[in-house]
Design brief:
Elements lengths: L6 H4 L13 H11 L3 E5 L5 E6 H8 L10 H4 L7 E2 L4 H11 L3 E5 L5 E6 H4 L7 H16 L5 E8 L2 E8 L4 H10 L6 E8 L5
Parallel strand pairs: 3-4, 7-8
Antiparallel strand pairs: 1-2, 4-5, 6-7
Length: 201
Amino acid sequence: MKHLRTVGDVMTHAVIAVGPDAPIREMVESMRQWRISALPVLMGDGRVAGVVSEADLLVKAQGDDTSGAVTARQLMTAPAMTVSADATVAGAARLMARGHLKRLPVVDGEGHLVGVVSRGDLLKIYLRPDADIAEEVRSELVAQLVPVASGTVHVHVEDGLVTLTGTVSDTSLPDVLARAARAVPGVVNVEADIDVDMPVH
C-alpha cells in the first residue's frame, strides 16, 4: 500500500526543461509538443534558475520584438517558486494556490531539479482505492488509538467516504478518530457512528 503524503509520492520524475539560452521558438514547441504550461530553466549544473510560463511567452508576443533573439534567460520568472520532494501534498497545494500556479519544479537540498508536480498530480490522492484508505485508517488510526480492551471500531470506505462504527469506552475517542481519519490522504469525508459504553466501576 502506498501512502500518498508527500510531493515525492505524486510528482512526475521525467521533466521537460530548457537552458537559459533557449530561444522562444524552442520553448513554444516544447510546450506544444508535451502539452505543458511552463518550463523550468536549468543552469548547467541542473539547478533551477527560473521558470518560463505560457503567460511569459504571451506577454513577449504582444511586444514589438518577436525575433528568435529573445531567450529563456530574459523571459523567465526568477527566482522560481519551487518545492522539495519531502514537502506535504497539502503544502504544495497551498503554494500553487497562493501563486496561481499550475506546476511547480521539485528540487533537492541543493536546488537541483528532481521532478515536477502539477495540480493533477496533487489530486492523485483522491484516486486512492477505498481498500487502501480503509487499511490505513484501521492500521494507523484505529489500532493505535483504540486499545483492544477499550472498544471495537469498524471501518468502511466507499468512494472516499469513511464510515466508523462500533463501541468505545472513552467519550473523546469518536471525535479524535473522526478528525484523524479526515487527515488521511484520499478521504473525502468521515461519518462517525460510534457508541460510548462507559465502564461501570
